[in-house]
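Case study.
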Amino acid sequence: MVAKPLPKPSIHSAPFWNGLAAGVLKLQRCTRCGEAQHPPGPVCRTCWSDALEWVVASGEGVIYSYTIVHRTTTPGFAGETPYIVALVALAEGPRVTTNIVDCPIEDVRIDQAVTAKFDAAGSVTLLRFAPTVEKSV
Amino acid sequence: MRFAAITGYAELPARKGADGVTALDLYCRLARELAVDAGLERGEIDGLLVHTPFDGFSLYWPTVLGDALALDLRYFDVVELGGASAAGMIWRAAAAIEAGLCDHVLCITADVFTGLSGARDLMPAQRGEFEMPYGVSPPNGYYAMAARRHMHDHGTRPEQLAKIAVDQRTNAMAAPGALFGSKSLTIDDVLNSPLVCDPLHLFEIVSPCTGGSGVVVSRRSASKSKHPPIALIGAGEAGTHLNLARRPDITTSLAVRSAEAAFRMAGLSAADMNFAQLYDCYTIAVLIFLEDLGFCRKGEGGRFVAERDLTWGGDFPLNTSGGQLSYGQPGGAGGMIAVVEAVRQLMGRAGGRQIANAAKGVAHGNGGVFADEVTLVMAN
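After joint prediction, the assembly is written out as follows.
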């Protein structure tokens, strides 16, 4: 069986992956201009400040676009098709590349509300999203 | 650019599989053919620009090729803008000549592209970390998401995208060396081909191949070519990001900016072009570049392609050698197909697919997923 590619955390991204492992979505935010960014980097892409902090994000977002992968070029995923790859716009602004899970492929829609789901995958935890379940008040 | 001109080109036939060669073999073959086409002796060539092939790429890559060919170089470098590398080379070569650094620059791209593993090994760490673990199936998955969003925002339909592949196939049938030049396509053929990444079908996606092509950029006063010199009258380049997730609107590319700069330099607009050779890793890329270069407004690309004959003899000649979709994609060297075909048409050497009175045209290169955009405006 071919192994799936797993993330190799860097010095810039370790807090992100450590957060996921603890069930928390963290984003890098600039203390100078307030912009959040993802993927994380050495400086703020908006103002070039290196005074960056990690903040807890809501885990809520909407699907900006998606594709249903029927034939995959990614090692280890051949047995998973069809599956959904999406760009999810987080409530805090940045978009993430991710999967939509717990969702029949015929139901996925642009602008659909989704909620973060923390999926253990070997030694790391991946950030996936599932359709938001409406809470009754 | 007044002092520089494109004086020759060479193009290898596309082949499936490794064909018993390395990328370095193909580079050397192209260098020989380019020298002959531009009428140059080896000792007259003093410039060399190359891209990064998946097969055999290393540090000192321009030096490796220069050494293999025993060139005496005054200007040599690697241009790494993915599929935009070819277009990016042309204006750099012309600028080097304008600056007085050299007289004859070989611009060469070639690769032995048999699978994605070689490409994966060279990808930026950020892609491996934040995209690959989700099975993004690059690059198909990214362009499929652009297509999906374009359909959502602008009502673009699958049969409109398919039309691009169909007309380019017709062009390939008049292009010796094309990988898929022997069988025509219909819109139904495209839509009935397997969905790879919904909404993109198999026949809307380039096929990896072995091959390559290149051009010679020369100082006009030093040209020995028997062919008409082709002027680079406008060039523009744009980049702001690596990953598609960073694009504010994935249905609009930075080609808006590269094209605006190139047309402004040329003093012309899209409407003045006799043809367009646009980067075409996927049908959706062509549609978006038609809009972003200004051939139609944003969102009207679907109707634009449906209402026009995009073949070499039609009212809007597009990717007249079949483009990468039908000629084949030799990795990052695929971007040179558009450049060479623009030069070939403007030199009047396109044989059975020659566009009548071709005088001005545009070639556009794209790297990554709408990450590196280079637009060239050329004239004879």
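Observations recorded in class. The longest helix of chain B spans residues 23-37. DSSP finds 13 helices and eleven strands in chain B. We will return to this complex in the next lecture.
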